[in-house]
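Task 17 of the worksheet. Students: predict the tertiary structure of the chain below and write it out as structure tokens. Keep your answer in the requested format; marks are given for formatting as well as content.
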Amino acid sequence: MRITSSMLFVGMVCTGLYACDKGSSASSGDTPDGASSAKSAQLAQSASAAAAPSTPSIPPPPDVAASPPDATTTASGLASKVLTPGTGKDHPGAKDKVKVNYTGWKKDGKMFDSSVTRGQPATFGVSDVIPGWTEALQLMVVGEKRRLWIPAPLAYGSYPRAGSPAGDLVFDVELLDITPAPKPPTVPEDVKSPPASAKKTASGLAYRILTPGTGTTHPGPTSNVTVNYSGWTPDGKMFDSSVTRGQPARFGVGGVIKGWTEGLQLMTQGEKVRFWIPASLAYGDKPQRPGAPAGPLVFDVELVDFH
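Model answer:
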């Protein structure tokens, strides 16, 4: 569950390593209800790179057509070979961000993307890319350069959307840096049910103020807000958090679940509030949206800004 439905884009638009074919899956687009956080700066960078004059192609490796006998193959079918050992000891996790240089080729030796020819490393979340990359990055350490042979099911598939390379792909990847994901927030002590001190509205929404705000006005039903938030089920399982992603979420007040729409309009700028949202104001007891959490939910929400 993530609040943004946009994927990260760097370099070539939907033709490089980014998982454009993921669309708005539950892991990349289920907000407190379908709000989208457009990454305009990254898209602008992508458009600029796509419109730039073509750059020289990097020759393919001699084993581009198939992985050699000394390559290691995982259970998923990903094959890889270390070209240059790394200097680091730690591996990136699924929620970490990485900085890499890379070049990608099709099996026929045609290069389709390269941060090297652009002269600028790429930075992105480990889980924001095609499955073959997500798996491979977690095998690497800083300073390591590795060649990947990624089968089509772990890339864009045999029949991808327009602009994405089809079939098996080969990448040379150098891991330059790892930015660890922020630690998840502590599970609220009152996550199971609202305490006696919580206020309750006529709809059944319960809430209590954790940190008073600095503002005096409230968002309206058509306002756009910037928030930090974390969400738990009553058993204490966290299912979503902008905090662990290290980036506030932006969306319209009217574009989220009913409990959020009501709750946000009770807040002022700078305020942090805990909400206990009944199932009827969340996704329901049997959500129609794949991946959405069922039943009552608990959210800690900080209203950073609104307009």
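Marker's comment: The chain is about 10% helix and 25% strand. The chain has a mean pLDDT of 87.
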